[in-house]
């Protein structure tokens, strides 16, 4: 079976890239699939996560300006070249299945190009804010664009969503729920004795790190010996904003922006709490990885993902959405209660068994064969 995964790039650290690498490595090890990754803007860079050598990579070399909308005229003029190169590559590979990982011109091109393959669109983020924008939208042009997107969604064999909460955002009846899977959890477990809290992810406003920094201003008054390490890279303007906020609040000795790391598991094992302050998430891999290391989780109860992973007061704590004072209070309580800290961490690691690749990946195999999921 010939399988294509289509995305923009695989050189940046992120949840989508991590999930894709895990899937490719699983299929490389457990099937005889011929696996291909088509990117359009890889920029001659190596994948950020290790991917099995059996996977063949193809880059279309389309250099969009990612600082502006894909619908900006300077980007739209590149679309015909994108279409022709993508069509030629698909015709060359002759795939049985195409999985579209992101959302740009290729989302519209592939149902037009690949009519003989099983076409699957997988969503890695929540449709919450897009749904709200649709409800509030009064722009005629945007309404037309929404209708076009809805139409093309019906042209896919399956839309794969991460949680059941997401189904209400889609009008077509081809949705399937498959959560992200975690590879076998590390045999190591965090000792939970270091006074370190960790957070990680793409440094972008949707991750809500400014809320976490404001909460930490409260935390240090009660627990000044604890530090917060934030790992990841991203929007330079947002990074500068966070650095300025940390300096203004005199937290330079308490909060550290560490940048991206290839040793995130080691950093987690060296920490005692994982905290997430995102405005929205769907099924964040970083939570699964942190729980796999035996870290208790504190997360805003944001739409729509953490509540599908965290069992409140069993393996983590769901904090009222965007409530900074409550986030700080829960952090302080956990820092001062080592018994609860260790109990949450124990259950966090134990509960990840329900989301292993052995449990989740067979669902993908059924889709590739067009079998009905139970």
From TrEMBL:
Glycosyl transferase family domain span: 191-350
UniProt cross-references to SUPFAM superfamilies, sorted A to Z: UDP-Glycosyltransferase/glycogen phosphorylase (SSF53756)
Statement: the UniProt record of this protein carries the keyword Transferase: yes
Keyword Transferase: yes
One Pfam family named in its UniProt record: Glycos_transf_1
InterPro entries: Glyco_trans_1 (IPR001296)
Keywords: Transferase
GO molecular-function term, one example from the UniProt record: glycosyltransferase activity
Record-given protein name: Glycosyltransferase family 4 protein
Lineage: Bacteria, Pseudomonadati, Bacteroidota, Flavobacteriia, Flavobacteriales
